[in-house]
Every structure is written in C-alpha cells, then in structure tokens.
Design brief:
Helices cover 31% and strands 25% of the residues. It is of the alpha/beta class. It has a seven-stranded parallel beta sheet, with helices on both faces. Pfam families: CbiA, GATase_3.
Length: 451
C-alpha cells in the first residue's frame, strides 16, 4: 500500500490527438492492474464525465477529473492526492489525458492540457499511438511530441491498431532509434470499442451489463498486449508529491451549522454527469446527501430540503421521465432550493422535444444538429442558492439542445457579452457545468439555503 504521505506511483496516458485509443488503454490498464490485486486510483484530464464512469467501473472507486481551468492549477496535485487517498490509499494512479498531449484551452496555449497536468503532478507520460498507415514516422512523431515540451517526460509508447507482426517489428525498431521504449502493441483485430452516441461514449450507468463486459474485455486485452511490469516501473519513477491532499472540510470551512439538511442528488441513467467532489463538499458543509433517480423514484427521499440535478441524457429518456408524473409534480411544487445544470435545466422546463417535463421553468427545449462545446468564464448575474451576484466562476458547456427562451428575466450567468440561464425563486438552472472544487462556496451556500 502507498503510505499516507507522499509516495504515489502515477502515470499519464496521453496521445498525439483524440481517437488514438487513450480511453481503451487507460480503462484496460485500470482493470488489469486491479485484477493483479492493486488498488488503483482513476483520473481524467478535463471536464469529461463519461470516461470517468468507465474508469470507476474498472477501478472499483470513483473516477475523478483533473481540470486546471475549472478548479485552478494549484488544486490539481492536491485533488490527485485526495482521489488516491479515499476511500483507501491507492497503490497507483492512472490519469487519462484529453485530446492531444499539448492541446489546451483555446487561446491559452497549453493551459489545461494533458501536458500541463502531467507537469503539475510530475508524472511520466505513456503515449498511445494510432499506427494505422504509419511506419518509421511514428518515431519522428514521438520524438516531436517529447521535444515540444522537455518538461514533459514521455517514458514509453503503446502501439495501437498495429496491422501485422512485420508492422510491429518495423515500429519497435524505429522507436528504439529514438530511445523510447515500446510497452505494448495492440492489433487492429483485437481492439475493443465502447458504444457511442451524439456526445461521445454511452455512459456506464445506461448499459451496466454491457459496460461490465467491455471493461472485462479491455482488461484482458491489456493483459495480453501490454507489459504491465514496465508500466508499473514507469509509474514508480515519478518523484514524491510535496503537496498536501485536498480536503473538502477545509475547502468549505466546516459544517455550516448543527442541523444536517437532506440534499438529494439526481442520479440514474438519465443524470450521470456529476463530479465526485460535489457530494463530498455538500457532506463537508453539513448536508445529508442522498440520491434520487427521476426515471424510477416516484418521490423525493423523505425530508429532502434541496435538490441538485446535474447533466446527462434526458433526451434519451424523455418519455420515461414524463411518465413519472408524481415526481415531476413534486419538483414543480418543491419549495426548497434547486440547482440544475444542462440536463437538469431541460428536465425543469415545460417540455423536451414536445414531451412534458416538470414545468417548473417557463421554457421549452429541443434537440438540434449543433454542438455547443467549450470552456466559459462567467459571472453570476443574480443572487441564487449557489452564487452571489457578481461572483466569477469558470465552467463548460457540452450539449446539442437549445431552450426557448435562452434565459429568464433574472439570468443565472453572463459570459461572452450575453446572459444565460434562469434564477426563478429558489431555482438556479443553466447549461453551465461547474466543478465545485473550484468554487466550494457553492456547496456551503446551498446547505445554508436548505436550512
């Protein structure tokens, strides 16, 4: 076991671009290392919610995000240490990157990139290469990726989509020329794919039996094609971390009072987008956190004083959500604070693609062909259960829906010279996804409002 102090073997799984197989390798590594009896801590660079679901299934503990844009660069190493400490200390942390190794937030060079996070946590990089239609140039690409930022150490390569034994030999010989070890090779025929839809992979919670089978197949694939001992040696080459672990109690300043109001977090297949730190911060602020599944639960948990409805895919479950008329009616009349992001916004409206929703907000929503995606620097326009007017916050958008109107008379946020979202009474709803570790006062405000 890793000691409670600073020793944490860790490795970042990266690639030159999206689509090279990072998720395949990272998820397979997590599952294969766990099958060896190791306690593995899973992490994902960026705001993505879906990959961490597969990571959690593979590792048997929550998948967590490391996003400097959302939480600040100074919190990345502490959040890594926190995730690797609870519920038990981990033997190794595996961090899946985002996009290409050096791709950061638009207009900010490599800020919030995989390379940036690798530097912040002082971790070696395992580079996954899609070798389709590529030979010796794979070595040049690897050398260029390494030389572009000498502070990022590429400690090994996984060859993906290798065409034949001859192709693999050619690639290994080329990479030996530049001194980068090959730690595994996956053939095209052996590759395992997870099901996808309009916003990426289908979340684990929506395909539980199939997801288990996929993760098992990925573990077997990595066991058969990757030198796990070499990966462990690479992870153990990371230096000690000198930063203390992030502490949710310290982040919120401790419980906001003696009473523990019950806060219900939406979950289940339709609402899978939530950061693990949200529940931890609410609990640290003094809440009794419970889960409600709007697809199946006819009522809120007894004693609920506040509700948080995060992101997900309500459009895939619109009719089932509509059929749960009792819960829709209860939310329409609920007098406690409600915080809703993206999917939650749609669920609280009057309808989604013509199917009735809760009717708590006077808006209609529909699917479109346009993907809205990107980081946002916003500030609160209206006082609400999670923010004071004028308070700055960073978040991201990721949806293919639109609402009419786009904001209420009392908007939630303003960014890019436009107003967004709704504050209606004790309801705060918008498309903006936020990570509360970046502004923990949101958790404390919500618990205080619940009282």
């Amino acid at each position: 076991m890793v000691s409670a102090h600073r020793s944490l073997p860790r490795v970042v799984v990266a690639a030159p671009a999206s689509g090279h197989g990072k998720t395949t390798v990272a998820t397979g590594l997590l599952a294969a290392l766990r099958r060896r009896g190791l306690t593995v801590s899973p992490h994902k660079v960026g705001p993505d919610y879906i990959d961490p679901g597969y990571h959690a299934l593979a590792a048997g503990r929550p998948g967590r995000n490391l996003d400097p844009f959302l939480v600040g660069a100074d919190r990345i190493a502490p959040l890594l240490r926190h995730g690797a400490s609870v519920p038990t200390p981990a033997d190794i942390a595996v961090v899946e990157g985002v996009m290409g190794l050096h791709d950061g937030a638009v207009g900010r060079r490599d800020f919030a990139s995989t390379a940036h996070v690798a530097r912040l946590i002082e971790a070696p990089v395992l580079l996954v290469l899609d070798t389709t239609a590529q030979g010796r140039s794979a070595a040049a690409l690897t050398l260029g990726m390494a030389a572009f930022d000498p502070a990022v150490r590429i400690g090994g390569v996984i060859l993906n989509r290798v065409g034949s034994p001859r192709h693999e030999t050619l690639l290994r010989d080329a990479l030996a020329e530049v001194g980068v070890p090959v730690l595994g090779a996956v053939t095209r025929a052996a590759e395992v794919a997870a099901p996808a839809r309009h916003l990426g992979l289908v979340p684990v919670a929506e395909r539980a039996p199939e997801s288990v089978a996929i993760v098992t197949a990925l573990a077997e694939l990595v066991e058969a094609t990757v030198d796990l001992d070499a990966v462990l040696d690479l992870a153990r080459s990371a230096p000690p971390l000198t930063t203390p672990a992030w502490d949710p109690v310290a982040a919120v300043g401790g419980p906001a009072g003696v009473e523990r109001p019950r806060v219900a977090l939406a979950g289940g297949p339709a609402f899978t987008f939530s950061y693990a730190e949200t529940a931890e911060l609410l609990t640290a602020a003094g809440a009794d956190v419970v889960t409600v599944d709007p697809l199946r639960d006819p009522t809120l948990p007894t004693g609920t004083r506040a509700v948080v409805i995060g992101g997900g895919f309500p459009e895939a479950y619109a009719q089932t959500l509509a059929d749960n008329t009792a819960l829709r009616a209860e939310l329409a009349d609920f007098d406690g604070p409600i915080v809703a992001e993206c999917a939650g916004l749609l669920y609280l409206g009057r309808s989604l693609d013509g199917v009735p929703m809760c009717g708590r907000l006077d808006l209609t929503a529909r699917m479109t062909d346009r993907l809205t995606l990107g980081y946002r620097e916003a500030f609160a326009v209206t006082d609400s259960p999670v923010a004071r007017a004028g308070e700055p916050v960073r978040g991201h958008e990721f949806h293919r829906t639109t609402t009419d109107p786009g904001h209420g008379d009392a908007p939630a946020w303003r960014w890019n010279d436009a107003e967004h979202g709704f504050v209606a009474g004790r309801v705060h709803a918008s498309y903006l996804h936020t990570h509360w570790a970046g502004h923990p006062d949101a958790a404390r405000r919500l618990v205080e409002a619940a009282r």
